[in-house]
Amino acid sequence: MTFDTDVASAEPASANPPADPMERVALLVGEACAGLAGVSEEAVLAETRRNLYPGILSEELELALVMAARSFVETDPGYSHVAARLLLDKLRREALTFLSGRPDEAGQAEMAGRYPDYLVSYVERGVRLGQLDPELAKFDLARLGAALRPERDLEFNYLGLQTLYDRYFLHSEGTRYELPQAFFMRVAMGLALREDDREARAVEFYELLSSFDFMCSTPTLFNSGTQRAQLSSCFLTTVGDDLHSIFHGISNNALLSKYSGGLGNDWTPVRGMGAHIRGTNGKSQGIVPFLKIANDTAVAVNQGGRRKGAVCAYLETWHIDVEEFLDLRKNTGDERRRTHDMNTANWVPDLFLRRVEADAEWTLFSPDEVPDLHDLYGTAFAERYEAYERAAEAGGIKVWRRVRAVDLWRRMLTMLFETGHPWITFKDPCNLRSPQQHTGVVHSSNLCTEITLNTSADEVAVCNLGSVNLARHVTEEGIDAARLRRTVRTAVRMLDNVIDVNFYTIPEAERANMRHRPVGLGVMGYQDALFQQRLPVSSREAVEFADESMELISYHAITASMELAAERGTYESFDGSLWSKGVLPIDSLRALAEARGGDLDVDTTERLDWETLRTQVRTVGMRNSNVMAIAPTATIANITGVGQSVEPIYRNLYVKSNMSGDFTVANPYLVRDLKDRGLWDEEMVAELKLHDGSLGRVDRIPGDLKELYATAFEIDPSWLVDAGSRRQKWIDQAQSLNLYMSGPSGRKLDELYRRAWRKGLKTTYYLRSQSATHVEKSTLKGTDGRLNAVAAAPAPGVSAASPAPSPSAVPPAPDSDAGAACSVDDTDCEACQ
C-alpha cells in the first residue's frame, strides 16, 4: 500500500481513525513514549517527519518511526524502549492480520482483552502449519490465555525485541504470527508437557520467563513446543583413534549442529604426526588434517541460517601435535593446516604448570603409545606420565620429544594473545571436583568452556542451560534471597524437564542425558546487579557479592534437585557419585588442594546450613548429576536487557553488532547518575564517543562515578579472576570467564593465568586484549619460543596515522582487537545461550 498525500498514513487502529495521517502517527508515538521519563514525543515526531516523502509505503512508515526513535538512544536509553514499542505495534499488526486473514491491529491497551483469544488462534495456526506440537492444542488454552500479561510487552528494549523478531518468533514465509507473551507461553507449555498439572506448571514457568527473572537458553527458546524440540545447548564428544571413529565424530557434529547445538570435541586420543599405522604400515599425518575437515563441516551446517555452526577442539598439552595445534588460528602459513572458523582450547594438566614453575622439561607423546594418560588425572596422571618419560628414555616409546615447559607455556600464551586461541582450560580441577568421577572422565569442556561432563565412545555429554537474571534479584540493600530461592527452584524444574521432552539427534546423546540428567543453571546481569548496589567491579565488596550470590544459587539449586529426586527419583548413575557420599561442590575443593599439596588459594567461607543439606542429598539423592554452569548468555541477555553473564561492562556507550544489525547501547545507570548531577548533555555524549565509552579521560565526571562505571579494559583483570574463584567454589561445573587486559605483556599474561590456576578456576574463555600504537605486545622471536616485548602494530583496520574518532559517531565494538579473535559480543557464543 502507498500513500499519495504529502505525509503518509498507516492503516487505522480502530473503526474511527484520525482523519489526519500525522495525527495517527502522533498517537502511535504518544503511546510508545507513555510513562517513560527523559524522552520527547516532539523529537521523535520531528525526526519521523524529516524522513517522510509522498507515496511512502506503510511498512516504510513503520520502519521510519522505529528508526526515528532509535536515533535518539545515545541521548537517553529510554528511547530504546520507545523504539521497541513502535516495533511492537508493527508486530501486533503483522500477527493479528495474519491470523485473522484481514487487516487487523490493536493498541497495547486493547491486548489485555485480545491476548486470550489470540492465544487460541495462534496455537491452532501453528499446529496447522506443522510448526507447533499438536499436544499444545490439548492444553486448557482459555486458562493459559487468562494468565498472559500483556503489560510485560512494554519491558523490552529495542535490541531485545528486534532480536526476538528477527530470529525467535515463529513465522510463516517471513510473516511473524507469534507475539511476545505467546512466545513465552509456548516455551513454558513445551517444558510442561509431562507435568501432572501441566497448565499450572506452564503458568509458573511462563511467569518466570515473562518477568525476565530467568531465561532459558537459545535452543530451548527456538524449539520448545515445536515439532522438533531440540532444547539442549551443548554437546561434548570424544573422537576415537581410527578413521571410522573420526568420521563418525564429524558426522555427529553435523547432526548436533543442525538443531542449534554448540560442540566441544576431545581430539586427544587421535594419534600424532609420525605415529605408526599398522593397517597400512605408514605414518600418521596427525590430527590437523581431520581438524580441517571438522572446521569446514561446522561452516557448512549453519543451523538453518539462524546462526553459524560452532565447534571447539580440545587437546591435552602432552600431545605430540600440540605445537601445530597452537598455530591453527594463525593467518600465515599453509592454509591446509589452518582452521579459521574452529575454536580451539588447551586441556592443561596440573603437572605441566608445576613443570613450568620449576623451569623443567616437558615431554610430548603420541597417544597411541601412551593411551591411558587420556583417562588419568591428578596424582595418578603424574605418576604414569613420569613412568612414560622413563620408558621413552629407555627406548620403549618411538614417537616423543622434549621441550622446555616454560617455552611451551610462553608459546601458548603468545598464540592466545595473537589469535585469541587456544583457550586455557585446566584438566585436573575439572576432574578432581567432578561429581561423576565413578562413571568416567571429563576429557574437555564445550564451545564456551562452562560445561565439564564425562565423554566416551558410547556417550556424548549433553547439557541443558538457563540463566538467573541477577539484576532482578537485588535491591540497593543487597540480594532479595526469597525471590532468588523461588526463581532457582522453578528454574531447576524447568531444566530437568528439558531432558524428558528433548528431541535427540544421535543415540549417544540420549543415552548420556537420560542416564546422568545434567543441567546447567547459570547467571546473567551480574554487572547490572553491581550497579544497582553501587559496587565497583574492582572491589572487595563485588568479590564478596559474587561469592554470596553464587552460594545462594548453589544452595537452592542443589536443594531443588534433591527435592525433585524425592518426587521423581534419583538419576540412574547416582550411586557412587560424590553426591551419594555427601560431598558437595564446596567440599570437593579439598580433593584439589590435596592433589596440589596445598597449593590452592581459594576462600572457603560458608554462610548457609550446608551440613543439613549434605545429609539430605546423601539420603534422598539428586535428580541431576550436575546442576550449575555459567554460560556466556550472549543473546538471552540482550533479550532481557541486561549485561551478559558475569561480564564487566564493555563500554558505557557503543554500537553492538549481531545478526540482527547494529544497535546503539548506552549505560542507563550511568545516564541516570549523570542526569542527577546535572552532567548529562550533548557535550558529555560527544566526550563519551570521543573516548570510546570510557569515563577515565572525561574531566567533568567525578571520581566515584569513574570507579563505579570503569569499563572492562580499565580494571585489573585479577579482580575478575578473584570473583571467578569465589563463584567456582560453589559450582559443580564451570563458568565462561573472559579476561580483559589493556597493554598486555608476557609477564602480565603469565601472572594472570597462573593466578587463575592457583585460584582454582576450572576454565577460562577468551582473552580480550586492547591494542594501541604504544602498547607492548607479547610475541615470539626466534626459535626458542620466548615472549619478547616489542612495539605493537595498530589494531587491524586502523592506520597508525588514523585520526581520533569523530564525535559524531558512536564507537563500535571491535571486530578483532589484537588477541580477540571475535568481538566482545561474538555471535558464536549464542551456541550456548
Can you tag this structure with a few keywords?
8-stranded mixed β-sheet, 833 residues, two-stranded antiparallel ribbon, globular, alpha/beta, Anaerobic Ribonucleotide-triphosphate Reductase Large Chain, 12% strand
Q: Distance between the terminal alpha carbons, to the nearest Å?
A: 39 Å
Strand count, sense and closure of the main sheet? 8 strands, mixed
> How would the global form be characterised?
globular
- What is the radius of gyration computed over CA atoms, rounded to a whole number of angstroms? 27 Å
Q: List low-pLDDT spans.
A: 1-19, 772-829
The DSSP helix count reads 29
From the 3D structure, determine the CATH topology of the largest domain.
Anaerobic Ribonucleotide-triphosphate Reductase Large Chain
Q: Tell me the count of domains.
A: 2
CATH class of the largest domain equals Alpha Beta
Give a description of the structure:
With 833 residues, this protein is of the alpha/beta class. It has two domains: 21-211, no CATH class; 212-667 and 709-833, Anaerobic Ribonucleotide-triphosphate Reductase Large Chain (Alpha-Beta Barrel), CATH 3.20.70.20. The protein is 42% helix and 12% strand. Strands 3, 4, 5, 8, 9, 12, 13 and 16 form an eight-stranded mixed beta sheet that branches. A two-stranded antiparallel sheet has the order 1-2. A two-stranded antiparallel sheet has the order 6-7. Strand 21 and strand 22 form a beta hairpin. Helix 3 (58-70) packs antiparallel against helix 4 (78-100), helix 5 (111-128) packs across helix 6 (141-147) and helix 21 runs parallel beside helix 23. The protein starts with 20 loop residues before the first helix and ends in a 42-residue tail after the last strand.
